[in-house]
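Hi V.,

You were right to ask for the full record rather than a summary. Here it is.
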Amino acid sequence: MSATTRKRRWLTICAITASAALVAIPAGAAPGRGSSPFGARALQQLAAERAQSVGAVTPKVTAEDDGGDGNEADEIAEGADQYAEARTSPGVVAPGAYGAAWNSLANLPSTGGSWRNITDLPYNSDDARYRDYDSNSSGGSGNVTGRLAAMAADSGGYVYAGSAGGGVWRSRSGGGHWQPISDKLSSQSTGALALDGSGRLWLGTGEANTNADAYLGSGVYVLSDPRHGTFSSRSRVGGDELESTTIHQLRFGGGKVWAATSEGVWSHSTKTLGGAWKLEFAPNPDYLPGGSLAGDASAPYKNITNDIAIDPKNPARVVLAVGWRSGDDYNGFYAKASDGTWTRITSGLGDLPSDPDNVGDVTFARSADGSRYYAIDQSPEQLNTNPDSGLEGIYVSKSGSPTGPWTKVADYQQLAADGSALTSSGYMPGVQAWYNQFLTVDPANAEHVYAGLEEVYETKDGGSTWSTVGPYWNFGFSCWSIDPAKQTGDCNQTTHSDQHGVAIGSYHGKSYVYVGNDGGAYKRPVSGAQDSSGHATDWTSLNDGTIDTLQYYSVGIGKDRTYGGVSVTGGLQDNGQSILRSNDKVMGSNFGGDGGDTLTDPANGCNIAEEYVYLSVQVTQNCAVNDGSWVTDPSKVTSYNVAPADNATSEARFIAPLATDMKNSSTWIAGGRHVWVQTHGYAIRSGDEWTSVRDLGAGRTATAVAASGGKVYAAWCGPCNNQGFARGISVGNADGTGWRDINLPATGADGAVPNRYLSGFAIDPKNASHVFLEVNGFSRHWTEGPGAGVGHVFESTDGGTTWKDISANLPDVPTNSAVVTANGGLAVATDLGVVYRAPGRATWQRVAQLPAVAVLQLKLSPDGATLYAATHGRGIYTIKVRDCG
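Predicted structure:
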C-alpha cells in the first residue's frame, strides 16, 4: 500500500476518538503510546489526513481506479473496496452468484444441533467499566448494535428496521422487543424499506450506500401483512431483473413502485405483483448485464441511481437523481421529455446544481400536504477538492414540485455552527455525505424536517434555522466528563454517528422519529425537547439486545479467571471491540473505532490484543478495565499501542491478518508488506518489539497468516484489485530462517490454486505441515477474470509445496476462515454460513442453520469443545463441535 493510499485514511465508520483538546497527556507519559487511533487521538489529526488527500485524486471513474471507488480520501471507501476485492478479484462477478450459492447450500445435508447466539443482549458502548485510553466509552451513544440502512414505521406502534447484513426486524411496541422477519430470504442486506398507502411493507435488498462490506441483493419483496407476517421467496415482486443489484430507494406514485438501483431506475405495478420490472432509465445501458461493456471494470459504477421524486400533484412528472458519488459525465437530474425519453435537466432548478460535477448522492423528501419538496445533494467536486466536506447543500422547493425552483437552505458551514460536534477544519458536517444521508418531513408540518448526515439535524422553519439534535458524540462539549459516576457528565444521550435511515410513526397516539445509523436504532418525540445548545434531551436507544445485527470481523475466546467460564471478545465494523465476561448481562466496549482482528489468550481472557485498522494493534492485560483516571494520572493507562512498522507506512490491509502460534501463545504473527513476529506475548509494550522475518515484496500485502510450532504460512496479494491481480504464498520459520515462495500455478496443473484472494489457513494441530487453504471469491463460472479457476478449500500435506482441491460438493461461495477440530474434522466459514467435513469423509455438510449471513472467522474454545462463529451482521454464535458431524 503506497504512501498516497495512506493519505486516504482519514475516517473510520464510527466515532473514533475524543478531541485532544479535552485531555492534556504529557509527552511520553503513556508507554508505547504513539499516535493511537482511539481515545485521545484528535479530530484535528483526522482532519489533517483528510486535507492531505484533497486534490491528489480525480473524482472521475476510470478503468485505472482502484476497484472503481474513485479514490476517495477516506477509510470507509478504502475498507469497503478491500472487502469487495476479496470477493471479486481478479475480475467482475456475474449476477446471480450468491443466489446460486444459497440454493446449493440449502441442498447440502445438515448436521445436528443448533447455533446459539451469545451476543443477543445489550451492548453498551458507554459501559463505565471500560474507560481506558483506547475506548470511546462516555461518548454518549449508549446501547448499540450493527448498522441499520433503512427504517419504516406506522401509526400503530409498529417499527421496521432493515440492517446492512442481518435482515429486517420488527417491533410491535414503538421500538424494542425486536423479531427478525426476513430470515428465509437469500439476501440479508437491506437497501430500502417503505410502507405504501395500503400498509404493505416493501423491502429492497442490497445495501446501496456504496459501502461494500454489505452485499448485493436478490430483488424487491412485499409483505401484505407486515404486522404479523414474514418475508419469503414467494413474496418477491416481479422476476429476477433486480437480482444482484443494490436498491437505494423505493418510491410510490401513479399506481407504480419505483426503484432507484445500481443498475438504473425501474418500475412495477403496485396492483399486479407478477410480471417483469420495467427498466425506466439507465444512463449507460451498454454497461448493464448482457450489454457490450458489461465486463468492463467500471461497469458497476456506470448506472448508479439514487432517488426518485414524484410530483404529488401530477404523478406523471418524475425527476430522477442519477450519479456515482465520485463523479461521472452521466451524473445529474433527469425528467421525461414529451417524446418519452429521459433528458438531463440543465436549467430551471434554481440553487440545486445541474452540472455533473456537483450532483452525487442525492436524497429527496416531500411533505404530506404536497407543498414542499426537500433534497440533500453530495458533490463529487466537493469530495475531491474541499477538505472540510463533500456536502453541496440541503434544498427546498417551495412550489412542491421536484422540478423546482430549488433554494439552498443549509450548507456544511451553517450546520457546523448550529451545535455540531464536527467543527474542526478538515472534518465538518457532510464529510461523509456520499455514505450517510437521510431526509424526512413531519407529516403534520411541512416546514419541520429531519436531515441525517454524520449527525442528525432538525429545522422547524423550513430550513431558515437548524439544530444538531443528534451530535456525532459528546466529546468536546463542556458538559462532557469521563467520570463513570456521571456517565457522560451533564450531556444528554445522543445517537451513534453516521445516519442512514429515518421514519416517523406513532405509538400510543404520540409521534416519534426513528433513525437508523451505524450503531442501530434510536427514537425521540417528533417535537422533542432541546437544551440551550440545540442538542436533543430525549433520545432513546432501541438497541435492547433483542436486535443483534452486529458486524463482527473476528472473535477471541479465553478463560475468565475472575468469574469462571470464558470471556469472549470480537472486533466490529463501526463499534470497536465488544467484551462479554462470563457473568455479564450487558456487553461492554473496551476498544473504540473499527475493530479488526482479535487475539485472546486461551488461558486468560483478559489478555487481549485488538487491531484497529492497517495493523494498528492495541494490547491490554486487564480486559482494558479502567475508570478513566488516566485523564489526570497517565500512569493509570492499561492499554498500549504496539503496532508493527507496516502500520506507519500503510503497507497492510484495512483489516490485516494477526495470529498466534498454535503451540505458543506468546509468539504472534502479523502480516503487512512484511511478515512480523514478536515473542513477548501480551507483555509487549512497543511496536519496536516486532521483527520482520519476511519481506513479501513491494506492492504485496499479507491476506492471511498462521503458525504452529514455529512454522509460519503467509498468503499475500499484490496488486489486490482486478487490475493485474496476483496472489501467492510464502512459507518459513518464526525465527526468520527457511523462507521461500511457493510455486502456485493457477491453471493447467494438478493441484492448481485459483488466482483469487487467499483468505485463510487452518493448520492441523498434530502436524504443522498439514494445512488447509481457504480461497475467497467465486469460481470461473461466475468470475470474468484470468485464472479464476475452481475450488474454495485446498489441502497440503507437505508444508504448502503442493495442494489438492478438496472442495467436492462445497457450494461455490467465498470462504473466509477454517479450523481443524480435535478429532480431525474441518469447519469452514463462508459468506452464507458454516460447513463441515467430518474426519475420513470427502463431502461437506451444512452446520445447522444460520440466516444468509457472512461468517468471517471461526475459533475454538480453549477446551476445543465449542465452535465460535463471528458473523458480519448477526453477532457471534456457538455450537458444540460434537454436533457438527
